[in-house]
Design brief:
alpha/beta, elongated, 14 strands, five-stranded mixed sheet, binds zinc ion, 248 residues, four-stranded parallel sheet
Length: 248
């Protein structure tokens, strides 16, 4: 039997995180049989299509549905790679001006950090994948997950696979990967329910404040949905520190 046709794949930058050691940062062959879409070839190597922003086949940028027939050289670049690729076919929208997220069930801490950093982030600890994907599509939210299988689903348009394990490291990773630095806005959103906070006065919330806080802080905000009161206490100071380091 004649050998099946193959194409040469090469992944760049953090897309290599998805590959086994021997395939990282080198070109390798995958079979395409009669014809195989670029998207299918990429995912057969274990890289979710949602991570990919640019595919170059024999020097030309192509879309995911481009068919490979054998012999081509395919270079695959990640989302938000810092290249000027404006004239090429971008497979993802540019960094969002108004980023919105829906976090997978195991990313509750990251969801709270993102809210504290000002980002609209939905999260439910009992949401299944279908619900998360549906919310992403209906509200154009970027899915944040550590589960590659969810991002490989055909209908998913926006997603980011979080590599870090510790929640503050996850926040740093997401902010850097999605280029959100200029959009960081602490103290504007409820970390528990995601509602934008309202300014309030000490007098209006004094009943809810611990004694120490009444004396120490000047500025207060209140969540109109769940009623929580926020002041620039220890948690906020810590988050401000995290954000200052992110911006630096
Ligand atoms: Zn709230």
């Amino acid at each position: 039997m004649p050998a099946r046709p193959t194409v040469e794949l090469r992944f760049y930058e953090e897309l290599n995180d998805f590959l086994p050691q021997e395939r990282r940062k080198v070109a390798f062959a995958v079979e395409v049989d009669r014809a195989r879409s670029v998207k299918d070839a990429i995912e057969s190597a274990g890289v979710p299509h949602t991570e990919v922003d640019l595919v170059i086949v024999d020097g030309s940028s192509v879309g995911f549905t481009h068919l490979l027939r054998g012999g081509e050289r395919v270079a695959v670049y990640p989302m938000f790679e810092a290249l000027d690729i404006a004239p090429l076919v971008r497979l993802r929208p540019r960094p969002m001006r108004d980023p919105r997220f829906v976090a997978d069930t195991h990313l509750g801490k990251l969801a709270r950090h993102l809210r504290m950093a000002g980002f609209d982030t939905l999260y439910g600890n009992d949401w299944d994948d279908d619900r998360i994907v549906a919310l992403s599509l209906a509200e154009r939210r970027t899915i944040l997950t550590r589960d590659r299988a969810m991002l490989r689903r055909r209908e998913v348009e926006r997603g980011y696979c979080v590599r870090a394990v510790e929640s503050e490291a996850q926040l740093r990773e997401v902010v850097a990967a999605l280029q959100l630095e200029s959009l960081l806005a602490p103290f504007v959103r409820c970390r528990e329910c995601n509602t934008p906070l309202e300014e309030t006065t000490r007098e209006a919330v004094i009943e809810k404040l611990p004694d120490k806080v009444r004396a120490l802080y000047e500025r207060f905000k209140r969540c109109p949905t769940c009623g929580r009161v926020y002041w620039e206490g220890t948690h906020f100071a810590r988050m401000k520190g995290v954000i200052a380091r992110l911006k630096a």
